[in-house]
Amino acid sequence: MKFLPIIWANLKRRKLRTALTMASVLIAFLLFGYLCAIEEAMNAGINVAGADRLIVRHKASIIQMLPMSHKERIQQIPGVQSVAHATWFGGIYQEPGNLHAQIPVVPEEYFEIYDEFILPEEQMKKWKETKTGAVAGRTTADKFGWKIGDRIPIQATIYEKENGEQMWEFDLVGIYDSDKEGADTTQFFFRHDYFDEAQTFAEGMIGWYLVKVDDPDQADAIAKTIDEQFANSTFETKAETEAAFTRGFAAQIGNITAIMIAIMSAVFFTILLVAGNTIAQSVRERTEEIGVLKSLGFTNPQVLALVLGESCFLSTLAGGIGLGIAFWLISMGDPTGGNLPIFYLPTRDLVTGVICMILLGLLTGIAPAIQATRLKIADALRRAA
Amino acid sequence: MSENGEVLVKVSGADKVYRRGSEDLHILDKLDLNVPKGEFLALMGPSGSGKSTLLNLLGGIDRPTNGSVEIGGDEISMLSDRKLAWWRSRHVGFVFQMYNLLPVLTAARNVDLPLLLTNLSSKQRRKQVELALDAVGLSHRLDHYPRQLSGGEQQRVGIARAIVTDPSILLCDEPTGDLDRHAGDEILDLLDTLNREQGKTIIMVTHDPHASARASRTLYMDEGKLKTEKPE
Predict the structure, then answer these.
(1) What is the CATH number of the domain that holds B105?
(2) Distance from CA of A320 to the nearest CA of B (A)
(3) Nearest C-alpha of chain A: how many angstroms from B217?
């Protein structure tokens, strides 16, 4: 710590150069943070997917529906603990840009399987008592300023009511939260019995099943058994773990992780050159000062530490500010207005960012630092004379 | 000068040879030197005669090709780089012609530099720095940057930095070489005071007879050897 004033003073030596270098590092880490959040959003759910949960959909496509009669047969398969179902409603709240998922479910069944969702008991009770009742995730409720007791109109795009009415109205009876990082709190759930009775599009059909198994190690085997159960039927199924399902969904866009790595590699390589050049130039300019420090008794490892300290200080300060701004921007919410319901900067990416800052500092500082240690005092002082 | 005659600096048969291409340059040639503790010694001689090279050997920032350099009983030419750096930080203070202050640090921070290598607390260091700057008459310039100081004042800061760890020997390389006569005299007065009142052993390289006149003894470098008389 006692060497910090020297490091700081050296960085202030050429303020414009340091500021420009810091700006480039800052932007790189801002980009890093933001891209990490986008990657997380694209792979949404993989990391929070329960190892004991299966998704069972129509073999042809998720948009093909399955009959409700499958439920009992799935429930009878050994190792299956509970079964729930869900359906994509695809409605619009106020305007098409207000994107969020609306899903008809059987309340207690669904929330038993998604036990990371926290809904107060009295709200669950109220929901069970209210046929038109619905619960919204905290993020969506906050976004639209919904309060319990509000009446929420949703315009259907798929499911008309019997009388041709497209407007569905729901009574908000609860708001759910989650204490699990990355859990989706943007969804809007309403009762399936209300939905099934009122809609005319696909009575007795649901979108997909959610299956909780007793033993996560048996998940793949149970998925296989479920598919075999419905093989060669009109409604063949494709069962897989929730993580595999989510991964497959994300892969339809492309290998997002690979794209992110490619972008960030290019950015960091450029920054490595920019910051490396700054430090090298800065050290070259003070050859005689390094000679003076050594004449005063600074050892080579101390000189090495001073130069590396300077480069690491620059990269961690600028990178920290960049990542901080990214964190702040990300905490403001999904920039697409709903296309990325799970939008946050995971802790692991924050840690990776900090490691990258330190690595960047070490890599940019190591060559000039070694050069400084090799400097002979007499030669350095001769240059000053 | 101390009257006890105890030898602080003992150089025996020191050679310094630099290789330039295929040619060997003999800068110091079997040089012998004894400096008693508390002496103020001036080294004179033409450019390239080896004065600064000798000063570098005495300060442990260069090593002789042959021979030995003993300071206060320590054979410094045999020490490892790490031990030599430690030795420098404890036993020797350098005063340079161009002051060699770090321009980005205040006077106090410049003087504090050698103390960073000690285990003193920041409070203790601050006290030492204030004492050193007070000793050179600059206690009112603690927070000034070198660019805000005159040449003479910068050299005083350089001297404060050299004495802040209370070394036994001060090595001064043309300490008045970049100053006008008045400022130069002030620096020489200061060195004289440090020698007389604090018993510092001072070895000063200079071209200036006026400066060398302040020393208790003057030696002349000529072709890598020391002479008591000025060569023709």
Answers:
(1) 3.40.50.300
(2) 25
(3) 26
